[in-house]
Amino acid sequence: MQAIDLLIHRAAQLITCASPAGPKRGAALRELGLLADGAVAVQGSTIVAVGPSEDLRRAYAAVTEIDAHGKVVCPGFVDPHTHVVYAGHRLDEFELRIGGATYQEIMAAGGGIASTARATAAASVDQLVAATRPRLDQMLRLGTTTAEAKTGYGLTTTAELRQLEATALLDQSHPLDLVPTFLGAHAVPADYAGRTEAYLDLVINEMLPAAVAWYRQSHFAVAEVPLFVDVFCEQGAFDVAQSRRMLAAAAALGLPLKAHVDEFTELGGLAMALAMGCVSVDHLDVTGAAGIAQLAASPAIGVLIPAVTLNLGGTHYAAARAMIDAGAAIALTTDINPGSAPCPSLPLVMALACRYQRLLPGEALNACTINAAHALGLGARIGSIEVGKQADLLLLDIDDYRYLAYEFGGNPVDQVIKKGVIYSHPGQERTQ
């Protein structure tokens, strides 16, 4: 028998989410690689075997064994679009929205992103780390093992770099892995009101080079975790031409691209982002038939955000069913942020997507694992239970994966295994 560190066996359902190449599309999005009475063997931080429990129990002698009888074992969830690193809150704006104010009205009055930017710009790196850590704790308890983390609440070179530095410190000190994204073109700060082009000059000529220089000296570069560049293409933020200019500057530096498009208005940002080669295009709430066809014909992943629609009181969710049926690749995300989606829970996002966007539970699970991993350029490393991949695994206190979306409001996660280390619910005590 071969000695290993960890053997999880007798799972009622072992959901591998295995994908031979690239994100899952169309009918393949329903394929979960489900194995009844399944087992997974882990050595160090790596998965070394997947198969029937009887076979793996004969082949391996583990230091630690977990009997997963009556439980689902699946990949750790991946959250591909977050604004989790910030200071302050928007409690007053929450009440304004309840009173009838729209997100756009609040933003135009100096609230929204600008409000959080003021609080974040005033915070030190240590204060940002302290404010963000409890949110990461929540996300980990709810099964997220990797998440993207955007800047964009600094809006000055110094403050944007502080957000990146806080992201790096959190990544090094918290079990949850973070993937950095530079989003200097998130909003136009008040001191550049009416001078969007001048602000974009600052972002492109000063902020972006500073962010790249920081990244090249960071542990992210050593670990081959990419630095993405994003832009908010929307009325009141950056128009299509300005967004193209931002993405072109990043592409010239060899950086992978993302874009916020079609959240409130269909400006033509989706076609531009696809032409620029964005890895993902995010929101897509108002994307119509022509845009869906363009997405389906592209390698980009549409990252959909039902929690934002719910939180802003909207009824027009992104047309996920039409996208899937057209052959587009989609992923799901929380978009956790202090304004439009103060939501740490991917299980809740799955429940929303099934109810309001007509995803099947298996499609939602793939959208929060393997497809989300591909939206971060990490599909070869995480997002599925396959030999050679990182041992990011969940034990769920359910015996059928469909409960993930069928039930909502609770937490089905019993244990999180991150890089082979076991964390127990609810306190996430390290148990190995």
Automatic annotation (TrEMBL):
Binding sites annotated in the UniProt record for 4-imidazolone-5-propanoate: R90, Y153, H186, E263, S340
UniProt entry tagged with the keyword Iron: yes
Pathway the protein acts in: Amino-acid degradation; L-histidine degradation into L-glutamate; N-formimidoyl-L-glutamate from L-histidine: step 3/3
Residue positions binding Zn(2+): H81, H83, H260, D335
GO cellular component, one term: cytoplasm
EC supergroup of this enzyme: hydrolase
Predominant location category: cytoplasm
EC number: 3.5.2.7
BP GO annotations: L-histidine catabolic process to glutamate and formamide; L-histidine catabolic process to glutamate and formate
Cofactor(s) it depends on: Zn(2+); Fe(3+)
Domain Aminodeoxyfutalosine deaminase/Imidazolonepropionase-like composite residue range list: 38-60
NCBIfam families to which the protein is assigned, alphabetical: hutI
Protein name listed in UniProt: Imidazolonepropionase
Species in which this protein is naturally found: Candidatus Chloroploca asiatica
Lineage: Bacteria, Bacillati, Chloroflexota, Chloroflexia, Chloroflexales
